[in-house]
From TrEMBL:
PROSITE patterns referenced in this protein's UniProt entry, alphabetically: ABC_TM1F, ABC_TRANSPORTER_1, ABC_TRANSPORTER_2
Pfam families listed in its UniProt record: ABC_membrane (PF00664), ABC_tran (PF00005)
Localization of this protein: Mitochondrion inner membrane
Keyword line: ATP-binding, Ion transport, Membrane, Mitochondrion, Mitochondrion inner membrane, Nucleotide-binding, Potassium, Potassium transport, Transit peptide, Transmembrane, Transmembrane helix, Transport
Domain ABC transmembrane type-1: from-to ranges: 127-415
Stored PANTHER family: ATP-DEPENDENT PERMEASE MDL1, MITOCHONDRIAL, MITOCHONDRIAL POTASSIUM CHANNEL ATP-BINDING SUBUNIT
Entry protein name: Mitochondrial potassium channel ATP-binding subunit
Biological process according to GO: oligopeptide export from mitochondrion; potassium ion transport
MF-aspect GO terms: ABC-type oligopeptide transporter activity; ATP binding; ATP hydrolysis activity
Length: 699
C-alpha cells in the first residue's frame, strides 16, 4: 500500500488544482467512510475525464489503476492518523490523467494590425535601419567590382612591372577603402537602430502582455498553467524579437544582395553565370528536401526540450510536496527520461546538420573549382580578365551566402510568427467579466449590509456542476456571520463570489443595496473588502513591504500600528533586521502563524469595512491558532465579517452561524440556538470533538 502511494506521490506535484484544496478538505475526506472515499475517487476521475476525455477513459478502463484506486481508498481510510496528506495522494492519484506535460498545438493567428501598431511609434528609426541595411547590401554588390579592378592592376603589374604602380592602384584602392568605410558605418547604423526598434517593441509587448494577463478573469487562471504564461512573457517575446530583427537585417540584406549580385554576375560573364545556373536546380531540390527533414527533426527536439523544462519547473516549484512524499527519485527519473529523449533527438539533428553541411561545402567548393577552371579557360581566350574572375567568385559567394541566410531565415520567420501569434492572442484576449462598473460608496456612508439574492453559480471550468442554486443570505452591517459545513459545500465559493472573482450566473450580490457588478472592481477588492485566507501568500520581499502591500501609501507608523493590532509587532522586532527582514519566497522563512499575522496586519492596514476570513486559522496548530484568533478578533472589531469555517473553533464569536449543505442553507441561528436544534450543526460539533479526542489519544 505504502509503495503504491510512493509510486504515485510524485504525480502529486503536477496536480495544480490540488493546491486550491485546503488541508481541511483532505482531513474531512480522510474521515469519510471508505465507500465515500471510493466515490470521491471516481468523481475526481470523472471530472478529469471530462477535461480530457480520452486519457480519462483509459484510466477508468485500466484494471490496474482501478484496483490501485480502490485499494488506496480503502487503505487510506485506516492509515491516515498522521494527517490529510495521504488523502491528497489519493485524490491526486485519481487526477493523474496524463503523465507527460501537454504541449499544445499552435493555433494562434498572427495579428498584423497589432504588430504595425507596435512599430508605428518607431517608424522613423525603422526606416533609417532599413535604409542602412539596404545601403550595406548595395555596397556588398559593388565591392567585388572594385576588388576586381584592384586585382587587374596587380595582375598588370606582375605581367608588366612599371614604376607608376602607385599611381595606378591609388584610385581603385581609395575607392575600395571608401566603400569599406561606408559599409562599416552603415553596418553599425542598421544593427544599432534595429536593436533600438526591436528592444522597444519587445518591451512594450511584454508590458502589454503582462497587463493583459493581470486583467484576466480568475477562471482564466484556473485553466492556464503558470509555466505556459511565463513562457509567453519570456521565450515567445524573445523569439519574436529575434525573428523580427533577423528578417530586417538578414532578410532584406540577403534579398537585395541576391538581386544585385546576380545582375553583376550576368554583366561580368553570361557564360559563367549560365554554367552556375545549371547547377542551381539540383541544389534547390536537394536542399529543400533535406532542409524539411531537418526542420521537422528540429521541431521535435525543441518540443522535447520544452517537455523536460516543464517537468523540472513543476518539481522545483512544488519542492516541498516532492520532498514530503520522497518523490525526488521519481522526479529525477522522469526528468532524465525527458532529457535523454531530448538529447537523442538533438544528436540525430546534429548528425543530419553535419552531413548536410559537409555535402553542401563539398558541392560549393566544387562549384568554385569549376568556376576557376572555366574562368581560366575564358581568360586564356581573352574573354575575361583576372579581375573579372575574382569579381565573379566574390559575387557568386555573396549570392551563395545570401541564399543560405534566406533559407535559415525561413525557419526563424515561421518560429517568430507563431511566437508572435501566441503573444498577440494573449494581448488581445479580453476578460469575459464586465469590468465597466464605476460605483463606489463613500467611506462615511458605508454600512456593510451584504445580501446574496437568489444566487446560482457554477465555475466556468465546470459549467455543468452548479455549486450554488438560488442561494439567499443576508449579512447585516457590523455583524459576524460564520458559514460552516462539510468540505466541498461551496463555502469558499461564497467568499470568491463576494470578492467578485467570478460573476454569478443568476441573481445578484449587493453591498448596501448596490449590485457588486456595478461597483468599481478595484475599489471593491482594494478598499471595501479585506480577505485573510488559510494559506497567506507573502511576496519575496521584506516584512514591511509585505504589510505595505495592503495600502502602498501607508506610512511606517501606520504599518507598525497594523502589526500591533495583528499581534505581530513583537515577533517582527525579535528578528535581527526587524521590519526589514526578508521573508523568502512565498514567506518560506516564517512559521505558519507568523505568516498569518503578517497577512492580518496587511488586511488591517487596508482598513476595509468588510472582512472575509476564509479558514484563516485552520492551517495552524492550536497554540498559534489562539494567538492568531486573538489578532483576528481585534481586527474584526467594528466591521462586517464573513467567516468561512471548517473547524468550528474558528467561527469566533459569530453573531449568526449558517450551516451549508450541498450549497443550500439548512440551519441558521446563534451557536446556542443551533445546538438546541440537534441537527447538522450538532453533528458537526460531535464529529469534530471525536476527531480531536482521537488525535490527542494518538499523540
Ligand atoms: N476554481 C474552481 N474551479 C472549478 N471548480 C471548483 C473551483 N473551486 C472549487 N470548485 C468546486 O466547487 C465546489 C465547492 O468548492 P468550495 O471550495 O467552495 O468548497 P468549500 O466548502 O469551501 O470546501 P473546503 O472546506 O474543502 O475548502 C467543489 O465541488 C469544488 O470542487
Amino acid at each position: 500500500m505504502w509503495q503504491l502511494m510512493q509510486m504515485n506521490s510524485c504525480q502529486l506535484v503536477r496536480q495544480r488544482l490540488l493546491t486550491n484544496k485546503s488541508n481541511v478538505y483532505f482531513t474531512n475526506l480522510m474521515k469519510s467512510k471508505p465507500s465515500n472515499i471510493v466515490k470521491r475517487y471516481f468523481s475526481e476521475v470523472k471530472t478529469s475525464s471530462e477535461k480530457n476525455a480520452k486519457p480519462g477513459l483509459l484510466l477508468l478502463c485500466s484494471p490496474w489503476k482501478l484496483c490501485t484506486g480502490v485499494s488506496l481508498a480503502l487503505g487510506a481510510r485506516y492509515m491516515l492518523s498522521s494527517g490529510p496528506a495521504y488523502c491528497k495522494a489519493l485524490v491526486a492519484h485519481s487526477r493523474v490523467i496524463q503523465r507527460r506535460p501537454n504541449i499544445e498545438e499552435d493555433t494562434a493567428k498572427f495579428d498584423w494590425e497589432k504588430f504595425f501598431s507596435y512599430l508605428k511609434p518607431h517608424k522613423w528609426l525603422l526606416v533609417a535601419a532599413v535604409a542602412s541595411a539596404l545601403v550595406v547590401a548595395f555596397l556588398n554588390v559593388f565591392i567585388p567590382m572594385l576588388l576586381g579592378e584592384v586585382v587587374n592592376v596587380l595582375a598588370r603589374q606582375r605581367n608588366n612591372p612599371s614604376a607608376n604602380f602607385m599611381e595606378e592602384i591609388q584610385i581603385p584602392a581609395l575607392k575600395l577603402f571608401g566603400l569599406y568605410l561606408a559599409q562599416a558605418f552603415f553596418t553599425f547604423m542598421y544593427i544599432h537602430l534595429l536593436s533600438q526598434v526591436g528592444e522597444r517593441v519587445a518591451a512594450q509587448m511584454k508590458q502589454d502582455l503582462f497587463q493583459s494577463i493581470l486583467d484576466q478573469d480568475m477562471s482564466f487562471f484556473d485553466q492556464e498553467r503558470t509555466g505556459e504564461l511565463v513562457n509567453r512573457l519570456t521565450v515567445d517575446v524573445q523569439d519574436f524579437k529575434s525573428s523580427f530583427k533577423q528578417t530586417i537585417s538578414s532578410g532584406l540584406r540577403a534579398s537585395t544582395q541576391i538581386i544585385g549580385s546576380s545582375v553583376s554576375l550576368l554583366v561580368i560573364s553570361p557564360q559563367l553565370t549560365g554554367l552556375t545556373l545549371l547547377c542551381i536546380p539540383s541544389v534547390v531540390i536537394g536542399g529543400t528536401f533535406i532542409g524539411s527533414l531537418l526542420r521537422k527533426l528540429s521541431r521535435e527536439a525543441q518540443t522535447q526540450v520544452e517537455k523536460s523544462t516543464l517537468v523540472a519547473e513543476e518539481a522545483i516549484s512544488n519542492m516541498r510536496t516532492v520532498r514530503a512524499f520522497a518523490g525526488e527519485e521519481n522526479e529525477a527519473q522522469l526528468f532524465a527520461q525527458e532529457c535523454n529523449a531530448a538529447a537523442a533527438l538533438s544528436m540525430e539533428l546534429g548528425l543530419g546538420i553535419g552531413l548536410f553541411q559537409a555535402g553542401t561545402n563539398l558541392f560549393l567548393n566544387g562549384m568554385v573549382l569549376g568556376t576557376m577552371f572555366m574562368g581560366g579557360h575564358l581568360m586564356s581566350t581573352g574573354q575575361m580578365s583576372a579581375g573579372d574572375v575574382m569579381a565573379f567568385l566574390v559575387n557568386a559567394q555573396t549570392v551563395q551566402r545570401s541564399v543560405a541566410q534566406l533559407s535559415l531565415l525561413f525557419g526563424s520567420v515561421v518560429k517568430g510568427i507563431s511566437a508572435g501569434g501566441r503573444v498577440f492572442e494573449y494581448i488581445n484576449r479580453k476578460p469575459v467579466m464586465d469590468q465597466s462598473g464605476t460605483a463606489v460608496i463613500k467611506y462615511h456612508e458605508f454600512h456593510g449590509d451584504i445580501e446574496f439574492k437568489d444566487v446560482s453559480f457554477a465555475y466556468p471550468s465546470r459549467p455543468d456542476a452548479p455549486v450554488l442554486k438560488n442561494f439567499n443570505l443576508k449579512i447585516p452591517a457590523g455583524k459576524t456571520v460564520a458559514i460552516v459545513g462539510t468540505s466541498g459545500n461551496g463555502k469558499s465559493t461564497i467568499a470568491a463570489l463576494l470578492e467578485r472573482f467570478y460573476d454569478v450566473n443568476s441573481g445578484q450580490i449587493t453591498i448596501d443595496g448596490v449590485d457588486i457588478r456595478d461597483m468599481d472592481g478595484k475599489w471593491l477588492r482594494g478598499r471595501a473588502l479585506g480577505i485573510i485566507s488559510q494559506e497567506p501568500v507573502l511576496f519575496a520581499s521584506s516584512v514591511k513591504e509585505n504589510i505595505r502591500y495592503g495600502r502602498p501609501d501607508a506610512s511606517d507608523a501606520e504599518i507598525y500600528r497594523a502589526a500591533q493590532t495583528a499581534n505581530a509587532h513583537e515577533f517582527i522586532l525579535g528578528f535581527p533586521e526587524g521590519y526589514d527582514t526578508l521573508v523568502g519566497e512565498r514567506g518560506m522563512s516564517l512559521s505558519g502563524g507568523q505568516k498569518q499575522r503578517i497577512a492580518i496586519a496587511r488586511a488591517v492596514l487596508k482598513n476595509p469595512p468588510v472582512l472575509i476570513l476564509d479558514e484563516a486559522t485552520s492551517a495552524l496548530d492550536s497554540a498559534s491558532e489562539k494567538v492568531v484568533q486573538t489578532a483576528l478578533e481585534t481586527a474584526a472589531k467594528g466591521r462586517t465579517v464573513l467567516v468561512i469555517a471548517h473547524r468550528l473553533s474558528t467561527i469566533m464569536n459569530s453573531d449568526i452561524i449558517v450551516v451549508l449543505n450541498k450549497g443550500n442553507i439548512v440551519e441558521m441561528g446563534t451557536h446556542n440556538e443551533l445546538k438546541k436544534q440537534k441537527g447538522l450543526y450538532w453533528n458537526l460539533i460531535k464529529q469534530q470533538d471525536q476527531a480531536a479526542q482521537e488525535t490527542s489519544k494518538s499523540l
